[in-house]
Amino acid sequence: MNDASPLNRYQLAGLGALLAEPARAAILLALMDGSMRPAGELAEIAGVSAATASAHLKRLLEGGLLGLHEQGRHRYYRLANDDVAAWLEAMALPHVALAAPKSAPRDAALCRARTCYRHLAGQMGVALCEAWLQRGWLQAESDGMLLLPAAAEALVCAGWQEAPTQHLLRLRGRACLDWTERRLHLGGPLGVAITSAMLDAGWLRRAQRNRALLPTPDGLRRLAELGVRIDH
User: Fold this and answer.
1) With contact defined as beta carbons under 8 Å apart, do 194 and 168 qualify?
2) For residues 36 and 229, what is the distance between their CA atoms, to the nearest angstrom?
3) Where is 116: in which H helix or E strand?
4) What is the mean pLDDT of residues 43-68?
5) What region holds the HTH arsR-type domain (predicted)?
6) For residues 91 and 26, which has the higher predicted lDDT (pLDDT)?
7) Which of 157, 232, 151, 231 has the alpha carbon at shortest distance from 193?
8) Is the dihedral of CA 155, 160, 161, 164 positive or negative?
9) What is the pTM of this model?
10) How many angstroms separate the CA atoms of 110 and 180, rounded?
11) Can you tell me whether residue 227 is helix, strand or coil?
């Protein structure tokens, strides 16, 4: 599934059938943090037997929503690619997320900041995208979004190392529709790199029980200096 091959009505109906099963929805939700997980762990998350999970995983693989990484005798499942993650975030999961109580969509921390596959989403992701567009730090183009030099300078002043920050200028992002906010956040390689840098800098930390990202006090202060403010 990709932008170059738009879905026809039969493919869309097939994807809808895949998402209509609560256990499969739970599996997809668990992988939205960009992780790779074995079948046994996914079976536990989905609340089904190993045999049932195996059947669900087979269908998701055949449907193009999952990828498989084999390492020796071990098999690990992940979302197929960024396009699948973006499609699930924007289109599918709002309608099926209630089927997966372990990742409740109305959890306050999850709505405030979370990973959408591997990039920042939720209120904080939307606030960052909007603030940096308004400041002229992000430039939206027909084929994606670019970080401009003024943003790199501001990030270095905020404590980021210059060399990795300059690397961000060579990456391209994408506008990704946020399903809780119904506005855009920054995805793609640029969004992933910025989120990773925030985690490395200690501005954000990962929650243990779901894909929420928890801003630290220092992170909130520094992000506010960069125009990114959210309600607590």
Assistant:
1) yes
2) 32
3) strand 114-116
4) 93
5) 4-99
6) 26
7) 151
8) negative
9) 0.70
10) 9
11) coil
CATH number of 9-103: 1.10.10.10
Strand, helix or coil for residue 169: coil
Find tokens 């920054």 and name the residue: 186
The two tokens of residue 215 are 């801003």
CA 122 to chain centroid, in Å, comes to: 10
Exposure string of 172-204, with b = 16+ CB inside 10 Å and e = fewer, is ebbbbbbbbbeebbbbbbbbbbbbebbbebebb
Domain ranges in the chain?
Answer: 9-103, 108-225
Closest CA to 199 of 215, 180, 220, 177: 215
Across the range 200-229, mean pLDDT stands at 93
Whole-number Cα distances in Å, 182 to 111, 128, 147: 12, 15, 23
Two tokens, residue 202: 């200690």
* Region of residue 33 (left: phi > 0; alpha: psi -120 to 50; beta: else): alpha
16-55 b/e (C-beta count within 10 Å ≥ 16 → b): eebbebbbbbbbbbbbbbbbebebeebbebbebeeeebee
Q: In what order do the strands lie in the sheet with 66-71?
A: 37-38, 74-79, 66-71
Place of tokens 């990742």: 103
Whether the pLDDT of residue 60 is over 60: the answer is: yes
